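A sample copied in:

***
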Amino acid sequence: MAQERANNTQEPNVDGLVPEISFKMDSSSVLSSIISSLLFEKKDMIANVSFNNAGIRISVDKARSMQARAYIKKESLQDYELLADHVQITINLSLMYRCLTVFGDKSAHVEFLYRGDGFPITFILEDQGVITECQINTLEPVSLPDFNFRSSSVINRAIIKSSLLKEALSDMDIPGSQYIDITMSPVHPFIKLASNAGAMRSEVQFLNDPEVFPVLACQTTASFPYALPLFRSTVKALSMATQTNIKMNTEGMLLLQHSIKSLENTNIKNWIEFTLSPAIMERDAVDLQR
């Protein structure tokens, strides 16, 4: 439940408790835009939010087929204070986004406070002298599936300009298409995306061009299918990213790591990553029904 009130001055901490976690940001849009990229469901989404000495990690899951995580470095935050080595809370992420955008498209100064178990998280936003305080109750802990991408060896890796990957993915979205095949190879075509729907087929191939791939390190030719709706869920993050690190392991799991520049400091890069499971059995089942 969120509670909002507008004041001209910030209320003092009447109970005298020192916050377990606190930080400030000059621009609420830095945090709200990252959270927006994780909101790929129409319904409210629940997230685990972890705080440690490196910064903040926000984790969400979709149908146990995709996991998304955002990493916000502490250098992106001001006056970041953490009393314990590690704190994790479970929160309604959709509600958190609505609180951060209470002033609409305007970017407000934001302060975050959390005083520990039994207390809500508090956002204090200020825009041109108007202060709004939002409180959100934490939820019972939620266990997310462990995709454990690194349990299998990484066989193929590439770093690509995010704008080029976004353009290629848009070409895959043909009517009736359910899956996208991704091929990574040490020989031509080095990276190939393909999608089918009846008699229609869309295919994009990338050449080994240093301007396209700052890094291209493929050990073997491997091709796996993935659910196209999962890739649609990554588009928001692609729109914000400058580079994307693509990794494929021996089990066909795909890791997309998007590098996001901080609006407040272009030298600081935050990350949004998506881990996708291959849809081998799902597509085989569809093929058998045809």
